[in-house]
Design goal:
- The structure is a single chain.
- By secondary structure, the protein is of the alpha+beta class.
- It has two domains: 126 residues, OB fold (Dihydrolipoamide Acetyltransferase, E2P), CATH 2.40.50; 39 residues.
- The chain has five helices and six strands; from the N terminus they run ααβαβββββαα.
- It has a five-stranded mixed β-barrel.
- It is elongated.
């Protein structure tokens, strides 16, 4: 029998995880996964691969209230219930991560249980809320990732740039948030105007 393609293994893992969540027939801590494959295969289809130390875990983003307001006004999905934001000091990166800090959002029964100050090899992908991973990938503590590290040493490292400090982020994000707020208000005004026009009131 031919080997299952990597994308099919990942799809099957996600389907099983979703089924376990919807059926609720197992304890909350249970998560059904299939073998994601060897490091070389997972490296091929995962868009983000890095090594880093967990520096913080929080129940929300510092921009959470602003983002939630914009999402509600624009009719977008909010952050998943019970989401945890795991911050990393990135020490090495092979794919998709070019700064010395990263945040991975974890939620659901298949979320990976990261511990503070532990060193991990992380396989992740961009989601609606940022980078995410799960226990169904090869993400693991470096003490359990010898095969992954052996393979990754054969791959070129990306050059990491220092992440801007919090104040610099504020100077960048604040105007962007303001711009989004203006767009949201404009969109609401246009929608209301169209509704009034349809009702013959304007």
């Amino acid at each position: 029998m031919p080997a299952m393609p990597p994308w099919m293994r990942l799809s099957l893992a996600l389907v099983l995880a979703l089924s376990a969540l919807l059926l609720g027939s197992r304890p909350a801590s249970a998560c059904s996964c299939v073998d994601p494959g060897p490091p070389s295969a997972v490296f091929g289809y995962m868009p983000v691969v890095f090594r880093g130390v967990v520096t913080g875990v929080s129940a929300g983003s510092p921009w959470g209230p602003v983002v939630a307001w914009l999402q509600s006004r624009l009719g977008l999905a909010g952050s998943p219930a019970g989401a945890l934001y795991v911050r990393f000091r990135v020490t090495q990166s092979w794919k998709g991560q070019t700064t010395t800090s990263a945040t991975v959002v974890q939620s659901g029964i298949c979320g990976y249980g990261f511990d503070l100050q532990r060193d991990y090899v992380v396989y992740a992908w961009p989601d609606t809320y940022g980078l995410t991973t799960s226990m169904c990938t090869r993400t693991a503590d470096v003490g359990q990732a010898s095969a992954d590290l052996a393979y990754l040493r054969t791959q070129p490292l990306l050059t990491l740039q220092a992440s801007p400090p919090a104040l610099a982020w504020a100077l960048v994000v604040a105007p962007a948030v303001g711009g989004l707020a203006v767009l949201a208000v404009t969109a609401l005004a246009v929608r209301r105007r169209l509704r009034r026009k349809q009702k013959g009131l304007f």
